[in-house]
User: What shape does this take?
Amino acid sequence: KQYYKDMENYELFIEHLKNHFDSKIVDDLINSLDKEPTGSLLLNTKKINIETLKKYYSTLRKHPFIDNVYYYDKQIDAPGKSFLFDNGAYYIMDSSSLLIHYFLDIKDGFNILDLCAAPGGKTISISLKNSNCNIISNDISMPRILSMRENLERLGIVNVTLSCINPAKLNLKYQNTFDVIILDAPCSGSSMFRKNEFSKLDWTKEKVNKCVNTQKELIRIAFNLLKPGGIISYSTCSFSYEENEGVILDFINNEPRAKVINLPHIEGEYRHKDLKEAIHLFPNLYNGEGQFICQIKKDESLINSSLPKNKKISINKQQSLELKDFKYQEIKNNHLFLFNNYLDLSNFNIIKNGLDAYEIKKSLLIPTFHLAHYLDNKNSIKLNDSDFKKYIHGDLIKTNLNLPDGFYVVSYENINLGYVKKVGNDLKNYYPKGLRH
Assistant: This one.
């Protein structure tokens, strides 16, 4: 009760849970919410290995079964306040949410729609696991999409298209289109109580009921957009039965083409008797903040519609060799974007497509922070400790390098940081101002 001293609905919340879950489970869950939230991160193995990361953080311990996921002690280590985080060496994410990509079997060439994507954890974890799929990540919040864009750019992720549109507007053109749809539905957020004081104070039964209506609408839209044989991964960060089992059971009882997939068993799971194929991750059982996860498959016997194809096939052969793997290009808002997604996404409100490679200023191509983080570090200028500190501070760096004038990637600890422009003996600093310290 100490944790809930400011929560007016404390008793109502417990009663609400005990309407559907065993009292012992609920009591243990409530007690676990007095404990400190867990810290976990997903390693970007294209930029760093765990041996190097352990030099910086002493408390890292491997997740028992998800590759490249590590727990850390938040009282000792602060990986969110580091140049490593700023430059995409890892992504900080709740270990419960990481089960979504763990359960999905993503194939090369899959078209994936992340319907309520921001701030981007599901998209990021899928992309780092399989960079050869096409991901359209959508959210109705423009500020959250712009924040997600920053996350993708520092991680060097290029197989993602960002969109900001109401999903209901996609229903007609994109029926039977996507191989996988991620629906991390808006919810009442009870699994966020340990991390976010506001979510605890904001919880009401009325909010649960309102979220249920939204969730039911979104799952119907997602199923319409899903290819026959495709999978919806439905999840929430709520403990409420109504938003989880209740939504799924209502949907499959009214949609004969939908089948719930039995998820593999894992250590620390909880399964409700009404829907044994899906799992809850409660913080008293699983080392994380909490998640509900369920997969739904669409009947394969339906005739598949032809996919809307992208007609903008205009690859510029003048581009540098390291960008040869991209098939399409587009100029938008004075930026050159390179991508491989062949779908016609004209009905989406596209914010960013693929790799934001260059900013166009008059007749010049200025390479971007995103491009620096997409490229490997083989041809980068390696900074020493002194020049590294100057670079992340935004200072000019002096050099005696025998190189032609022009733009070069600089790196530290084998991690690309960004660009400099060599002019004579000066390296002019192009590190983003928002990251300088």
